[in-house]
Amino acid sequence: MRRNTVWFVLMLAMLAMVFTGLSFAQQYNEAPSLAARVAQGELPPVAQRLPDDPYVVEPRERIGDYGGTVRSATMGIEFAGEDSMFFDIMNSFVRPDANLENIVPNFAKDVEVSDDQTTFIIHLRAGTKWSDGAAFGVHDIMFWYNDVLQNEDLTPTIGINWRHGGEVVDVKALDDERLQFTFAAPNPYFLNRLVHDVGWLLYPSHYLQNFHPHYIDEAELAQKVRAAGFDHWYELFGHKNAAWAQQPMDPDRPTLTAFKMVERTSNRRVYERNPYFWKVDSAGNQLPYIDRIETEVVSDVEVLNGMIMSGDIDLATYHGDIRNYPLLRSFEEEGGYRTILWEGGYSNEANFMVNMTHEDPALREIFQDVRFRQALSLAINRQEINDIVYFGNAAPKQFTVLETSPYYREEYANSFAEFDPERARELLDAMGLDAKDSEGFRLRSDGQRLTFTIQFPELDTPTGPNVELVTQYWNEVGIDARSEQIGTGLQGERAPANLMDATVWAGVGSDILFPIRGLEWVPVNPTWECTKWTAWASYFHSGGATGEEPPEHIKELRQWWEDIQVEPDADKRDELAMNIVRSQAENLWNIGTIGETPWPAIVNVRIGNVPENVLFSWSGPWMAHMDPEQLFFEDGRRR
After folding, report:
1. Do 367 and 274 lie in a common domain?
2. So what's the pLDDT on residue 357?
C-alpha cells in the first residue's frame, strides 16, 4: 500500500506549520457565544468538542473576528442558495484544491491508495463529533454501507459507482478510525467520486436508526410513519435524511457542517454555528467565525438583485449573473457591498448540442454530419457574444478542458472557433443543403425547411442571451434555428426521453469531473442536460436493452471512457484521456462559445477573507474549496 502523492505533499505542509509555530496541542479558542454556553454548563470545553487532530485553515487575509449574521437568499425552500455555499460537499472526505487540479484531504485526515488502485484506506479524524455532540466514527459509515446502500427499499439499484468491476464494493472497518474500500477492479478515480458522485455517505446513524426497521420495533416504526403522514418506512427515513448537497432539510438531523439548521419555514431557513465543527484556524480558533445565517426565499433573480442593491443581502454568489454587473456596480456604495469578478470554473459557459439521435431521420442525418456541426461553429461570432453578454471579460473558445488541465491544447480550444460565416455556408452547400426557400432558408433532402428549436432552462449562467445571439448567427447562414425557454421540469422530462432538437448547457472541463462525469464527452446515460446522443446513451446505460446501437466510432469513444475507469497505469489513462479530448475537438460533439467567463460575487464590504481570484463552479463545488468558514465580519458585526 502506498500513499498518494497529494497526501504526502499535504503532510509536509502540515509539518512545516508545526515548525513555524502551529502546535496541534495548543490552547483552543472559541466564539464568545459558545464560551458563554460552556460557562453555563450547556457545552463541554472547546478542546473536548474538537477532533484530536482538527483540520487547520490558514486564513486568507488574517485571523477573523467572531460574530455576525449573514443575510442570504434562495429561489426555493428546497433549492440551493447562498447558505448552500457554506455546505456544498463540506462533508466529503476529500475536496478539490483552489485550482481544481488536485484532490486534497478534507474531512478525512489521510487516504492510502494501493498500487493497483483497487483498495483505499480512509483515515478519519479521531474525536470528531456530530452537531449534537454524538461521536462520529466508522460505525456511521458502516451503517450507510450495511443498512442504506445494501437495503433494497432505500437503494433499489446499486449504481456503477459502488459496483465497480461488476461487484459491489467491499467496505470494512479496520479499527475505530480507519475504513477500507476494496473494489473488484481498479478504480483510479475513486477520490474524484468521493468529491462528487459518492462523497455523500456520512449518515448520523445514532439519529437515523430511529427510523430504520433493523433498529426499532416494527409497531413503533409503523406509528412514526403514520404520524408523519407517510405510507412506508423508507419514505419517513428519506424525509428525515433529506438534504440538498449535504445541507440537511430537517432541523432535527445532526450534521458535520459548519452551520446547523435551527429553523425552516415556507419562506426562510436559519442556521447557527455548529459547536462541534472540526476545523480551526492557524491560531487555534474554532471555525466558523460567523455566528448565524438567515436565508430568505425569493421569487426570482430580480427580487434578489433589488435586495442586494438596497443592502439587504450580505453574500450573493450562486445566483450571480454577469448581465447585471454594471447595475450592481452602480449601487455598491448605497448597498454597502462590493462586486468581485470571479472566474466561472466552466471550460465553456454555453455548449450547444444538436440531437444526433433525433427521431426525425432527415434531422438525424444532418446533425450526424460533422460538416454541419463545423458550419454551426464557424457561424458563431464569439467575440460579439463576449462583448455583448460578458462586457469583454471572457474568452472566445471551443469547448475543451480547462487550461489548468494537462490535457489542454490550444489548438483544441481554437478548433473551428473562428468567425467565418462564408466557410460555414460552403460546408452547408457541400452537404447538399444548397437549395433554399423564398425566405432564404435552406431545405432538407425531403424539401422541408431546415428548422430546429433550441430548448433550454435559464439557470446559473446567462443562457438566454447566448441562445438569442447564436440563433441569429445560424439564421444568417440559412438555418431556421429557433429558441424556447422551458422550465427545469420539462427539460428533465424531454431531454432523457430523446424529445428535443437541441439544447445548451454549461460545459464542465475540470480534471475533477472530466474523468467521471463524462456526459459532455461520451454517451454515458440519458440526462436532462444533454441532448446530443440520448438514444446511444440509453443503449450503453441499459446494456443494449433500450435506445439505439451506435456506430463504431461512437463505440470506440465509449470504450476509451470505460477503459479509463479501470486503468491503473497513469500514463495509459493520460493517453485515453487525450483520445477523448481530441475527439471533441475533431467532431464537435459540443459546440462551445465562451470560456473563462466572469462570475460576479456580491460581498458585504465588512466581510473579510474573501478570495479575489477563484474558479467558481460545480466542479469546486462552488465555495467548498475556498474554506468559506473563514469568512468573517470586521469586528464581528455588519455595520
Report:
1. no
2. 97
* Residue 531 CB neighbours (<10 A): 30
- The top-scoring range by mean pLDDT among 5-14, 253-262, 473-482 is 473-482
Q: Taking each helix axis from N to C terminus, what angle separates 570-587 and 552-565, rounded to the nearest 10 degrees?
A: 150
Res 398: pLDDT: 96
Residues 370 and 276 in one domain: no
Q: Please name the residues in contact with 543: beta carbons below 8 A apart, sequence gap of 6 or more.
A: none
If one counts the domains in the chain, the total is 2
Helix (H) or strand (E) holding 11, with range, is helix 5-19
Q: The CATH number of the domain where 410 resides is what?
A: 3.10.105.10
Pick the more confident residue, 200 or 393: 393
Domain assignment present for 335:
no
Question: For residue 69, is it within any domain?
Answer: yes
306 belongs to a structural domain: no
- Position 327: which residue type? L
Which alpha helices (H) appear in 566-618, and where do they start and end? 570-587
Q: Is the full-model pTM beyond 0.85?
A: no
The residue whose grid cell reads 442536460 is: 529
Q: In terms of residue numbers, what domain contains 560?
A: 348-595
Which residue type does 129 have? K
Q: What is the pLDDT of residues 281-293, one digit of tens each?
A: 999 999 999 999 9
The string of pLDDT tens digits covering residues 340-392 is 888 777 788 889 999 999 999 999 999 999 999 999 999 999 999 999 988 88
Q: With contact defined as beta carbons under 8 Å apart, do 543 and 558 qualify?
A: no
**Mean pLDDT of all residues in 499-526:** 86
Map residue 455 onto helix, strand or coil. strand
The answer as to whether 343 is a domain residue is no
Rounded CA-CA distance 303/36 in Å is: 38
Query: Beta partners for 599?
Result: 342
Whole-angstrom distance, CA of residue 485 vs CA of residue 491: 10
Cβ count near 409 (within 10 Å): 15
Which residues are 436's β-sheet partners?
Answer: 442
Q: What is the C-alpha separation between 342 and 418, in angstroms, rounded? A: 26
